[in-house]
TrEMBL record:
Transmembrane segments: none annotated. InterPro entries: S_layer_C (IPR022651), S_layer_central (IPR022650), S_layer_MJ (IPR006454). Residues 34-545 form the S-layer protein outer domain. Residues 118-454 form the S-layer protein central domain. It comes from the Archaea. This is S-layer protein (TIGR01564 family).
Length: 545
């Protein structure tokens, strides 16, 4: 063994005799052995392929040099790939105004002291017209007790969903859901007031090609509705606990028994089994898994004559299974499945935002009702104003409806005018996967593709410099970078004693490779005759990397 070491040492010393000069930027160093190949291999597959060792007796400059080398290697650690499944966050900004009405102009409206007017706008003016002109309001709804009802037509940045049942879960019709805003204004001796329950935002579902409130339809799980400018899918409506759960669709389709859908962030939805429980009745076993571990599970009847649905919610993930069936040979089953993320529970009868309470909109034989419990025929959701009375409103005053729409008063510098109108100046951020459509602020947006150089962020550990007392040439499992000469670094001293490197007090800045000297792994010595020369060698290496 000793003879073998002497032979290797002779080769190394011989190499030192033909050392070449390395000049990199402002720094220069002598290099011995294949330094270029060593430098090219410090990072492999995005991870550090070396350990860094500094002497226990090293000067402060050596420690700093080792840290700088580690930082440089850390900066090289990333992975690259081709975008196959991508996503993007898109900002959408929209502004619009409704028609206006002059509260002081008899040609527009005659509103005497003590009288009230209900103003209505919608995503589509035809719906607003019908809501103002033909709708009957329940006696306990403030909008029932008004002197006049006026439509302000379309507020184009309110949202309309033109097909709330895109997978035809319930029927084949392209039923609609439309956003509305309501404001009841009272003339109080020439001043104008908006009192508690005088204003509301609502999203309401209508039968296909119908615009009158009498032709609204009941909401159902799986339906899509707009809510404050964004499209959501209904995951669950609970009359027992008075809430409506809604989420953002990530999948709406068929999942085969035994297969799963990967949502991302460690979550998957699995259809474990489909069991036939009668001639045409089926039960589905569905699981939500996090990092491969089941965190929520349901086994329930789906479809059939009763139209049963399996509904499962866990930590923002929502699942609705509407139907199940088997293939012709009864070998395996399928489940018609909706999956949502960002699923939230909207508590009816509670404040959704300060001063705005969530109610359900009811259709009771054609009459518009509001309730703070999930009861009756629920055709929509509403946010009703429950704050303090807003009194003595005049030109320049504004009233915010659900932090979404603003009712504005403006005299246009004419004391004989007071125009009232709705306006919006709203921004939304939406996340889209490639190929996904989204309806936001009444704009249909589709992410067609992502054109980018893909760099995936991954968890990586940059090399940390350790002391020579904590490292060993015999036990190394990767290449080593030794900072400091034989006087300060014990491992460099071992190599010098074996004749594998030749560094003394007169040596210039040197980068020397001892091939296979660390348990079969290469070693790079970064050193010089003094601490300044060692620092210069370290800077030369950093410039190479």
């Amino acid at each position: 063994m000793a003879m073998s070491m002497k032979k290797i040492g002779a080769i190394a010393v011989g190499g030192a005799m033909v050392a070449s000069a390395l000049a990199t930027g402002a720094f220069a160093a002598e290099k011995v052995g294949d330094v270029d190949a060593f430098a090219a291999d410090v990072v492999a597959d995005g991870n550090a392929n070396v350990d860094i060792v500094v002497g226990s007796n090293a000067a402060a400059l050596d420690v700093v040099s080792a840290a700088n080398i580690a930082a440089k290697i850390g900066s090289l650690m990333f992975t690259e790939g081709t975008v196959e499944n991508g996503a993007a966050t898109i900002s959408v900004k929209a502004e619009a105004e409704s028609d206006d009405i002059d509260l002081l102009d008899a040609d527009d409206i005659t509103l005497a002291s003590g009288e009230t007017v209900l103003l209505v706008a919608a995503a589509d003016g035809d719906y607003a017209d019908e809501m103002a002109e033909t709708t009957t309001y329940a006696s306990d709804v403030e909008f029932a007790t008004v002197t006049k009802k006026e439509t302000l037509g379309s507020l184009s940045t309110l949202t309309k969903v033109s097909d709330i049942d895109p997978s035809d879960w319930v029927d084949d019709d392209d039923n609609d859901a439309v956003e509305f805003v309501f404001a009841k204004i009272e003339n109080n001796s020439g001043e104008f007031d908006i009192n508690e329950e005088y204003a509301a935002y609502a999203t309401i579902a209508f039968a296909d090609d119908e615009e009158t409130f009498a032709n609204t339809i009941a909401l159902d799980e799986g339906y899509a509705i707009p809510f404050l400018g964004e499209e959501y899918r209904i995951v669950k409506i609970s009359s027992d606990d008075d809430y409506v759960a809604v989420g953002k669709e990530v999948f709406d389709g068929v999942i085969k028994e035994g297969e799963s859908y990967d949502i991302g962030n460690g979550y998957t939805v699995s259809v474990d089994s489909i069991l036939k429980s009668g001639d045409e009745d089926y039960k589905a076993n569905v699981k939500i898994l996090k990092d491969g571990k089941t965190v929520a599970e349901k086994f329930e009847a789906v479809g059939g004559d009763e139209g049963d649905q399996l509904k499962l919610i866990y930590n923002g993930v929502g699942v609705v299974v509407n139907e199940a069936w088997e293939n012709v040979g009864s070998d395996y089953g399928y489940a018609e499945t909706l999956i949502t993320t960002n699923t939230v529970q909207l508590d009816v009868g509670e404040e959704y935002i300060p001063d705005w309470e969530l109610n359900v909109v009811q259709n009771s034989t054609g009459t518009f009702g509001l309730d703070d419990e999930v009861t009756g025929t629920v055709v929509g959701l509403a946010l009703v104003y429950t704050g303090d009375d807003e009194e003595d409103l005049d030109s320049g005053d504004e009233f915010d409806i659900a932090d979404y729409v603003t009712l504005t008063l403006d005299d246009e510098d004419d004391d004989d005018k007071l125009k009232a109108f709705f306006k919006m100046d709203e921004s939304k951020e939406v996340s889209l996967a490639i190929g996904q459509n989204v309806n936001v602020l009444n704009a249909q947006i589709k992410l067609a593709e992502i054109d980018a150089e893909a760099k995936e962020a991954v968890v990586m550990t940059a090399p940390i410099a350790v002391l020579d007392s904590e490292a060993s040439l015999d036990a190394a499992d990767k290449g080593l970078i030794l900072v400091g000469g034989p006087v300060v670094n014990a491992l460099t001293a071992e190599l010098a004693d074996a004749g594998l490197v030749a560094i003394d007090n007169e040596s210039p800045a040197t980068l020397a490779v001892a091939a296979g000297a660390a348990n079969g792994n290469d070693v790079l010595v970064v050193a010089g005759g003094d601490r300044a020369a060692t620092e210069e060698a370290a800077e030369a290496l950093i410039d190479m990397l």
